[in-house]
Each structure stands twice: as C-alpha cells, then as structure tokens.
Design a protein that fits this description.
The complex is a heterodimer of chains A (194) and B (428).
Chain A lengths: L1 H39 L6 H22 L15 H36 L12 H30 L3 H8 L4 H16 L2
Helix pairs in contact in A: 1-2, 1-4, 2-4, 3-4, 3-5, 4-5
Chain B lengths: L1 H13 L4 H16 L8 H9 L6 H15 L1 H13 L6 H13 L5 H12 L2 H4 L4 H13 L8 H10 L3 H29 L12 H7 L4 H15 L5 H18 L5 H34 L2 H11 L4 H18 L2 H18 L4 H16 L6 H10 L4 H24 L2 H10 L2
Helix pairs in contact in B: 1-2, 2-15, 3-15, 4-14, 4-15, 5-6, 6-7, 6-9, 6-11, 7-9, 7-20, 9-20, 9-21, 10-18, 10-19, 11-19, 11-21, 11-22, 13-14, 15-18, 17-18, 17-19, 18-19, 19-21, 20-21
The chains are: A mainly alpha (194), B mainly alpha (428).
C-alpha cells in the first residue's frame, strides 16, 4: 500500500513537471509571438489559444501533486487546536469533500469531452484545434487527481481503523504555517548560496 | 437564502475543508436546495472556460517569474546597493529593507516571495549592527506586503478577472499608493528611531564612490520592471504577454549569472505548478459558485438586503473595510479575496465607487491581513527566515506598520485621486 503511494507520488511529480514544461513552453511561445509581432508586424497567431490549453492541462496535471504535497489551502485556525484523533477524522472528511467535488468535475469534464468528440468541434480560430485533444488531456489530469485522492483516502481509512491517527494526519493533515514557510525559505536559500 | 449560504460557507471553511472544495461544494449544495435543475450539469463548461482563460495564464507566468528571480541571486547585490543609498537615515538598514522590498515588488507579483527573498538577505544583519530586533523584523514583514501593491501583482490580476476590470489600469492605480506606502513605512521607522535612537543600530559607512559603484546592481530588477510594465503601457503586450516576456528576461538574467541549470529550472517549475494548481482549483470552485449564486438570484438578494439596511455609501464602505480587517486576521488572503469579491464589489460599485480605486483598497486590506495575527502569512515568513525566538517579536514589530497601512488606507479613501489619477492620465 505504501509502495503504491510512493509510485503515485512519483507519477504525480512527473505530471507536475510535464504540466510545468507546458507552461514554460507557453511562456516562450507567447514571448516570441509578442516580439515578432512588434518587430515585423506579422504574427503566427494562436499563441494565446495554445497558452490557454497549456494552463488548463498543466494545472490539471499538477493538481494531484499539489494534493500529495498538501498545498491546497485550508483555513486551519480551528483545526490546529484539535486533538490528533479528531484532526484525523476531520482530515478524512475534508479529503472526501474535495474528492467528491473533483469526481463531479471529472464526470462533467468528460461530458464536455464527449460532446466535442461526437460533434467534432474545432476551436473558432485560425488554428481550428480539435477541442477533444486538449480536453482529453485535461480530463486525464483530473482523473489522475481522483485516482490519487481515492488511494490516499483508502490508506488513511486503513490507518484510522488500525487506530493510527498520526499516520492520517501525516498523510492528509493541513500543512502548518511553519512547514510552508520552511519550504519558501529553502527556495530563497537555494538562490542565495553558491 | 443569504443566511443559509453564509452559514454553510463559514461551516465548510471552519471545518478546514480545502478552500477550492469549500467553494465548489457550497455551489453544489446551493444548487441542490434552491435550483429546480441541477446546476452541476454546467460544471464542465464552466471549469473548462475558466481554466483556458488567457488572462489567467498571467498567474502561472508571474509565479514562474518570481520563482526564477528568487533563485537567480539578484537579491543580495540589489540589497547592498540599496543600503548604500538609504541607510544614512536614522534607522539605517531598515530603510534598505523597505527600499529593497519596493524594488523587488516591481518585478514580482507576490508578497510572500518578496518578504522571503529580502528577509533571507537582511535578517543576519540585525545583531551585527545592533538594531532593535522587533522593529527590524516588522519592517521586513511590512515591506514584503508591497509585493502585491506595486505592479505586477497576482492579486490585482485575480481582482481584475473576477470583476472584469482592466488589469493595466489596476496596475497603474497601484503605483502611487505603493510609493506612498513605502514612504509611510520609512517614515514609521524614522519616527521610531528619532524617539528611541538606540533602535537605529550602528551607523553604516557609505560614500559617494561606493554608491555610484553600486548602481549597476540595481539594473537587473529595473530592467525586468521596464520590460514587464513598459511593454504593457507601450501598447506592445497584454498583461499575460508581458508576464511571458518577464519569464524569458528572467531566464536570460539567470543565464548571465551562470545560475541557469537544469536543477534551477526543475525547482522553479515544481514550485510554480504547486502554486498554480492550488490557485486554479480555487478559481474553478469560485467560478462555479459564482455561476450558481447568479442563477439562483443570491447576488440580487444580498444587494437588496444591504440596501434594506439603509446605509449611506460612506457607511457601507466603512462596514466593508471593518469586515475585511476582521476576516483578514483569520483567513488566508487569496481565498478571502476570491470568496468575497464577487459579492462585495458589485455592492460597492453600485454605491457609486470606482472599481479600479476599490481594487487598490482591497489590496491594502489584504496587505494588512498579511501582517495581523493570528493568521498573517508574512509574519510566519519572517519568523521562519529568522529561525529562532518567538513569533511574538515579529507581531509586535509589525504593529507600527499596521498603523502606517491603515493611515495610507484612510488617505486613499479621502483622496481617491492617488489611485485613479495615473490610470486616468494614461488613458487620456
């Protein structure tokens, strides 16, 4: 089970990298488009549309990684003062609510995809992109989140049944402000050294 | 309906349900209770529309820009140069803290990144120069908040998207209040150190030749600022496009500093995607919720309720400001903005206030929220940089700057022209 979670973490990380690569590529593409447009008064056009797809697909692919890194913001003023068993229960409840929301999102996202497929919808631009392509990649990212979230829920439920509330909090718990800050400092520190 | 929605939202957030899910689930519940047809059917379209919006692409671009700058090492030299220019004032390097934060804010759209970057550089200088530690820490926490007022600003982009207000105008509107606020912070330090000269620490040696030699170190951040903001107002680029130019410029800068490695890119991308996924998830939840509350007529009910209170526009504005000050003590700031702006802003604009001006007011309130306990992200950041002692020191040290922030807020309310003049002149 924990091995499976490790694999999920690795997959989610790769998902985030690929999503980030899309965003970085979009930034370069858009920048080149702006420079060419202003210097040569021609444009290859469509970079804005592609950047939009990059955002949708990239953020969907990174959604699961953000979950495993416990980066989704929670208002934890009350949570902080809970004893560990109660905190574990709240954690499971919260992740269930989040999963429910994304499950519905995935279902209706899939509906949008199916509609584009059957109607063979193309975007209303010079590129005339087959919308089903970016939409399929988008739904894939959402589905990855659902898979990872269900796996996490299962692992946490097993831990709770075994009476191991600490593991639940370690897996799902709200990231305390301290942890978040430490990470920010790591980053600032890595810019400083060397 | 208004009370139910409000209580449900409070309950979800207080249970610490992730903000994105709180907004989304609230949307589902309201649709379940008040709508004859399940509005979740529109969820796919709403989410796809929101997450392919080209304006929102500016968010990951600006986050990426900040992540690259953070790691490119431009901050130390910039800080040293600032110290040469402003530390002759009573209060010494504390003025350099505010100055360096202002300059970094002009390249970066996030207050947390600003406080973390400048804080890391500055915090070791407290003991060596015998400053009053609390005031010094407070100046870092407060200076960092300038990140979202001086353009570019991720919060102003989100405000612009949610309220359909021009982002270039919002950016321009932030410039003068940003400079006024930086001046107010420096004035706070000056007054404190004139009353208690011992707080101002040891004098820093500066000389004109050293000042002139330090000037080139201010060029990289200024260059990024000119590229990002200049390209918008020259009419060459939209805000999103200017952010893309900024990313490329930051990459070039990092390459010149020989810092552009695969490892830097990987770390920057990972950090960017975690933040982006979090923000976009919240925005999807918010878009869906906004769709639901518009369809079931909740927005209209809220404004009827508020009109029914019979408050005059200034009274309403005062109530809104108090509401944000209290909420800001407890709530993470971006979530606070996304959850409240769609309801509050139409009300305030309906009373005849300017949406661009109100964007600046909201950002000032968010800055205050960042340095007021118990939940103030910049307080945590600075305490983390310091790595010892108690958070109480930072909270106490930031208190005088909260007063400065409120004073500037009052000034902007009394003299709206401070925010609206520049965008007005620019648009002719």
């Amino acid at each position: 089970m924990d091995r499976l979670l490790q694999i999920a973490h690795a997959v989610a990380r790769v998902g985030a990298w690929c999503g980030g690569a899309l965003i970085l590529a979009a930034a370069v593409l858009v920048a080149v488009d702006v420079v060419i447009r202003n210097l040569f008064v021609v444009t290859f056009g469509g970079s804005d549309e592609l950047a939009g797809y990059a955002l949708a697909v990239g953020s969907a692919w990174a959604l699961a990684f953000a979950l495993l890194e416990r980066a989704h913001v929670r208002i934890d003023v009350l949570y902080q003062s809970l004893p560990v068993r109660a905190a574990a229960l709240v954690d499971i409840l919260c992740l269930s609510a989040f999963t429910l929301f994304v499950v519905l999102l995935t279902r209706h996202g899939y509906g949008v995809l199916m509609q584009s497929l059957t109607a063979d919808t193309h975007s209303m631009s010079a590129l005339a992109v087959r919308l089903a392509i970016p939409q399929a990649m988008w739904v894939l990212g959402l589905a990855l989140f659902v898979a990872v979230a269900l796996l996490l829920l299962l692992r946490a439920a097993l831990a709770l049944l075994a009476g191991d509330a600490w593991t639940v909090v370690r897996l799902l718990g709200s990231r305390s402000a301290t942890e978040e800050v430490e990470q920010e400092l790591d980053q600032a520190g890595s810019g400083r050294s060397a | 309906m208004v009370a139910t929605a409000f209580l449900l939202l409070i309950a979800l957030l207080a249970l610490s349900v992730p903000v994105a899910a709180s907004l989304g689930v609230l949307g589902l519940l309201l649709s379940e209770i008040y709508s004859p047809v399940p509005l979740s059917l529109a969820m796919g379209e709403v989410a796809w529309g929101a997450s392919t919006s080209f304006i929102l692409v500016a968010v990951p671009f600006f986050v990426l820009l900040g992540e690259i700058l953070l790691r490119s090492g431009i901050a130390e030299r910039m800080y040293a140069a600032m110290a040469q220019w402003v530390s002759w004032l009573p209060g010494g390097l504390m003025h350099a803290n505010v100055g360096a934060c202002s300059l970094f804010a002009a390249t970066c759209g996030s207050s947390v990144a600003t406080a973390a970057t400048i804080g890391t550089v500055a915090v070791n200088l407290i003991e060596r120069n015998r400053y009053n530690e609390r005031l010094f820490l407070g100046s870092l926490a407060a200076g960092g908040t300038l990140g979202i007022l001086i353009p570019p600003s991720i919060n102003l982009i989100v405000y612009g998207v949610l309220t359909e207000t021009s982002i270039p105008k919002l950016f321009l509107a932030g410039v003068i209040p940003g400079l006024v606020l930086a001046a107010a912070f420096m004035l706070t330090i000056l007054i404190a150190c004139l009353i208690r000269p011992a707080w101002g620490g040891r004098r820093i040696e500066t000389s004109w030749p050293a000042r002139l030699r330090s000037l080139p170190d201010l060029v990289p951040p200024l260059a990024i600022f000119v590229i990002v903001i200049g390209s918008i107002y020259a009419g060459w680029a939209t805000p999103t496009e200017s952010a893309a130019l900024g990313v490329v410029a930051a990459l070039v800068l990092a390459a010149c500093r020989r810092r552009l490695t695969l490892q830097l890119l990987r770390q920057a991308i990972e950090g960017t995607m975690i933040t982006t996924a979090m923000i976009i998830a919240i925005l999807i939840g918010a878009y869906f919720l906004n769709f639901v509350i518009a369809v079931i007529g909740l927005t209209a009910q809220v404004s009827r309720f508020v009109t029914g209170l019979g408050l005059s526009p200034p009274e309403t504005l005062f109530a809104v400001i108090v509401f944000y000050l209290i909420l800001g003590m407890f709530m993470e700031t971006l979530s606070m903005m996304v959850a409240t702006v769609p309801i509050i802003v139409p009300l305030v604009i309906g009373m005849g206030y300017d949406p661009i001006w109100f964007g600046v007011v909201i950002v000032l309130l968010i800055e205050t929220a960042m340095i007021t306990p118990p939940v103030g992200i910049n307080l945590f950041v600075v305490q983390g940089v310091r790595g010892r002692g108690e958070i109480r020191d930072v909270i106490i040290g930031a208190a005088p700057f909260v007063i400065a922030l409120l004073a500037v807020l009052g000034l902007i309310v009394l003299l709206p022209g401070l925010a609206t003049w520049l965008p007005m002149v620019a648009s002719g």
